[in-house]
Amino acid sequence: MTATHPALPDDTPRRRLLVSIHDVGPRFESEVDALAARLEPMLGGPRFAMLVVPDHWDEAPLARAPRFAARLRSWSDAGVEMFLHGWRHRDDSAHTGAWQRWRATRMTAGEGEFLGLDRAEARNRMRAGRAVVEDAIGRPVAGFIAPAWLYGEGAHAALRDENFAMAEDHLRVWDPARDRTLARGPVITWASRSGSRIASSLFVAALARRALARSATVRIAVHPGDVGVPHILASIDRTVGAFAASHRPARYAELAPATAI
């Protein structure tokens, strides 16, 4: 079946919808397939980004998964933007300070890999991960997005060192080399770790469908864990469908430095 794009309001060209699939790698191949198949009809094609983890929890090395690497290249050739998403996605740092510990334990379940790294270690992982992903897709990555959107001072410094074109956190997309914000606004996502988190993310997504209806740029992020929760999948359908009717499915690359705010 050929995907069709919904009719859009006249001012839609000025509004962008950016959708991404996180934690892409051979460990979650079937879940990524399911999410991609779900999103394509709603977005009028493969108009989403993929955030690729080179070796998820040291258990799924992309460098030793040639079949999946070939699939990544095929998606990339079709126009899917590929971001480097950490190295192992697991947080193995010893955090000091109440704020850092809170972020590491409350904002994610031990997966904020780049929150506690120093500059040298963050740079090493970025370089190694970039080499793996770019070898798989045959072109430069679109940028770097830290696992759980969590960055420490070392990660921010390493981003500048490595000259990534783009980075993203919970509240903005920015150009690290120039420290220029390219888009603002919260990312809409879902949490599947517990019943309470599922309920709260469903509530927030419903609220966002109203609160962000006229935002210039809306970002939506989905994860492999979403596939196993029917209520989350239904919420994803409603949320992506609502914004695809009011915003143009777009690419992160459109957030050129000239549009910085």
TrEMBL record:
InterPro entries: DUF2334, Glyco_hydro/deAcase_b/a-brl. Transmembrane segments: none annotated. This is DUF2334 domain-containing protein. It comes from Novosphingobium tardum. It comes from the Bacteria.
